[in-house]
Design goal:
The strands form two sheets. A six-stranded antiparallel beta barrel has the order 4-5-8-7-6-9. Strands 1-2-3 form a three-stranded antiparallel sheet, with no helix packed on it. The radius of gyration is 21 Å and the shape is globular. The protein is built from one helix and nine strands. It is mostly beta strands. The chain has two domains: 51 residues, no CATH class; 94 residues, Thrombin, subunit H (Beta Barrel), CATH 2.40.10.190. Keywords: Ribonucleoprotein, Ribosomal protein. This is 60s ribosomal protein l33-b, putative.
Length: 154
């Protein structure tokens, strides 16, 4: 515990804002230790009961193209939080999913997925080039996609 005063967050309150409590979450496999510095006892919760996102958000920028020629079999993506070539190198080989809803239901679901794979970086600003199983239609430009954290070589 930091202190007995529930309004005391840390030495610098500007880091956490002006909230009366600070919440810390620690992973203690397979449980999550949740410490609320305003209460007296920590609580344990199972990891599988907590909502978690197992992908990184990305944005589809468009097809790779030159001045006159477009290459619809190669798509450019911007990954959230990636702003240089070195950071984009971590995502090479990762799977990409473009998830969308269709009008007609097939096998009890309207959700469809086009899968792809990140092949290389593009430029110096963290954009990456990817190839999808089927070419992405032009209406996906600007849409969001999911960059899965597999396959992993860690």
């Amino acid at each position: 515990m930091i202190g007995t005063n529930p309004n005391l967050i840390a030495d610098s309150s500007a880091t956490f804002g002006d909230f009366p409590y600070h919440l810390a979450i620690f992973r203690v496999s397979p449980y999550v230790l949740k410490v609320d510095f305003g209460s007296t006892s920590p609580s344990l919760k199972r990891l599988d009961k907590m909502a978690s996102r197992l992908y990184i958000k990305g944005r589809i920028l468009g097809h790779k193209r030159g001045k006159r020629n477009s290459r619809p079999n190669q798509s450019l993506l911007q990954i959230e939080g990636v702003d240089n070539k070195e950071a984009a190198r971590h995502y090479l080989g990762k799977r990409v999913a473009y998830v969308y809803k269709a009008k007609r239901e097939i096998n009890g679901s309207r959700v469809r997925v086009i899968w792809g794979r990140i092949s290389r970086s593009h430029g110096n600003s963290g954009a990456v080039k990817s190839k999808f199983r089927t070419n992405l239609p032009a209406k996906t430009f600007g849409a969001s996609c999911r960059i899965m954290l597999f396959p992993s070589n860690i």
